[in-house]
Design goal:
YchJ-like_M; 4 strands; NTF2-like_dom_sf; Nuclear Transport Factor 2, Chain: A; YchJ-like middle NTF2-like domain-containing protein
C-alpha cells in the first residue's frame, strides 16, 4: 500500500500498473491531472490478513488540488501471487 501511495506521489504509472492484479488492471493509466494533486499524507487505519494470500487495507490519503484539501478513504483488496502483493480493487468510503 505504501509503495502504491509513493507511486501516486511520483506519478509513476508504470509501477502502479505493475502492482495492479491482471484481473482488474486497466490497459493504460494516465496521470495527467491538471492541476496535479499534491499528496500530503497517508494514514493506514486497518490492515487485515484474510489468509496467507489475501488482505485488506483501509487507508486515508490526503492531497491538495488547486490549494483545496481533499482526501481519499478506501478499503483496498490485495492478493499475493508468487510472493508478490497486487492491488485488486477497493471500496471508496464517503
Amino acid at each position: 500500500m505504501r509503495s502504491r501511495y509513493t507511486a501516486f506521489v511520483r506519478r509513476d504509472a508504470a509501477y502502479l500498473l505493475a502492482s495492479w492484479h491482471a484481473s482488474t488492471r486497466p490497459a493504460t493509466l494516465v496521470l495527467d491531472d491538471t492541476p496535479a494533486p499534491k499528496w500530503i499524507g497517508l494514514q493506514i487505519r486497518v490492515q487485515e490478513a484474510l489468509d496467507a494470500d489475501h488482505a485488506t487495507v483501509e487507508f486515508v490519503a490526503r492531497y491538495r488540488v488547486g490549494g483545496r484539501a481533499q482526501r481519499l478513504h478506501e478499503t483496498s483488496r490485495f492478493v499475493r501471487e508468487n510472493g508478490l502483493w497486487f492491488y485488486v480493487d477497493g471500496d471508496i468510503h464517503d
